[in-house]
């Protein structure tokens, strides 16, 4: 007699994308909360400005999903292309969101279990790289919250994604 086993899925790829995009929407609101000057000049304790941190997030998010989809990884490019313009930085953020949405469905399911050299820097399973992208964003957004509070600005509610 053959036994059939039903395997439940903990979370679907679409749910992972929605979760990440919720984080990205919150990070966008944190960027919006900064006065433009402080976004690119204010720092505490030797940390980078939040604008510089956002540059890192932009270097990872869209290119990271393209890397997962194509298995072609370019070197990180964290240069500030916004020329210290909050409006431009938000445009780049929105463009990265579009890239993520475009390439997400092109990531082969098995790619999440394959070992890759993300950005030519470290070898990891695809799912671990993806979780790093999200964790890194949360980490830097937390730094942005500290900066906003130090500037006397109430940051967006972190639970509203």
TrEMBL record:
GO terms for molecular function: metal ion binding. The keyword Metal-binding applies. A divalent metal cation binds at residue 140. InterPro entries: DinB (IPR007837), DinB/YfiT-like (IPR034660). Keywords: Metal-binding. It comes from the Bacteria. The keyword Metal-binding applies. Belongs to the DinB family. This is Uncharacterized damage-inducible protein DinB (Forms a four-helix bundle). It comes from Algoriphagus zhangzhouensis. The lineage of its organism: Bacteria, Pseudomonadati, Bacteroidota, Cytophagia, Cytophagales.
